[in-house]
Specification:
The chain has ten helices and no strands. Helix 2 packs antiparallel against helix 8 and helix 9 packs antiparallel against helix 10. The longest helix is centred in the N-terminal third of the chain and has 26 residues. It is mainly α and 238 residues long.
Length: 238
């Protein structure tokens, strides 16, 4: 059980380090990656997922996402008794990853005036604030994620060749490119809430509020979507 906690913690920390790190590189002033654009961000998140799954997969299955954990538990592929261990590791790891991003880009916070850009490094926000549609977007995107992961894992060929983590990373890139525009595609409660808490408590120069009014969307939406994606996959391919 301890190994699973540590594995999920390390994997999720790597995910957030890569993911929030690429967002920081693109958004913060005087970064060499500044203005790199959405494709750069989605590639950074996808590669972060792949590396995290390679690192943690052999120890815990590398869920690195409460939506995946709860989705698998809902179809009997993970005991509910194990869920708190997975979720604990994921949220702690996300918080640690966010702190590391803050440290790496420490000189750049003062150079960036817009507090909205600083928050965007840590957590997602809607392009158009419409809670109903934002929630629906996160549900659909996460259902695609969990259903896609189950489909990839069920295919023996990539597992035997060691390509499964890379394919999961490409799945995340595809979701970001196609479905990420409206909300920034959290598709992972830990990835959003852990760094949002870090944003709230860290002494970030010139930061604004942490937008707690929106914070429930990237938590509830992915959990609902993860369960729906798992149930739909099970119903279609029992």
């Amino acid at each position: 059980m301890e190994n699973r906690f540590v594995s999920e913690m390390v994997g999720t920390a790597l995910l957030v380090l890569f993911g929030d790190g690429v967002v920081a590189g693109v958004l913060l002033n005087r970064s060499k990656a500044q203005n790199g654009g959405w494709i750069v961000i989605t590639m950074g998140w996808g590669l972060g997922v792949a590396i995290a799954v390679y690192a943690a997969g052999q120890f815990s299955g590398a869920h690195i996402n409460p939506a995946v954990t709860i989705g698998l538990a809902s179809i009997g592929q993970l005991p509910w008794a194990d869920v708190p261990t997975y979720l604990g590791g994921q949220f702690v790891g996300a918080f640690i990853g966010a702190i590391l991003v803050w440290l790496v880009y420490l000189p750049h916070w003062e150079q960036t005036e817009d507090p909205g850009l600083k928050l965007a490094v840590f957590s997602t926000g809607p392009a158009i604030r419409s809670y109903g549609m934002n929630l629906l977007t996160e549900i659909i995107a996460t259902a695609v994620l969990v259903g896609g992961v189950l489909a990839i894992v069920a295919n023996a060929a990539p597992g035997e060749s060691g390509l499964t983590p890379l394919l999961v990373g490409f799945l995340v890139v595809g979701i970001g490119l196609s479905l990420g525009g409206p909300t920034g595609y959290a598709i992972n409660p830990a990835r959003d809430l852990g760094p949002r808490i870090a944003h709230a408590v860290l002494p970030i120069a010139g930061k604004g509020d942490s937008d707690w009014g929106y914070a429930w969307i990237p938590v509830v939406g992915p959990i609902v979507g993860g369960v729906l994606g798992a149930l739909l996959y099970q119903a279609l391919w029992p």
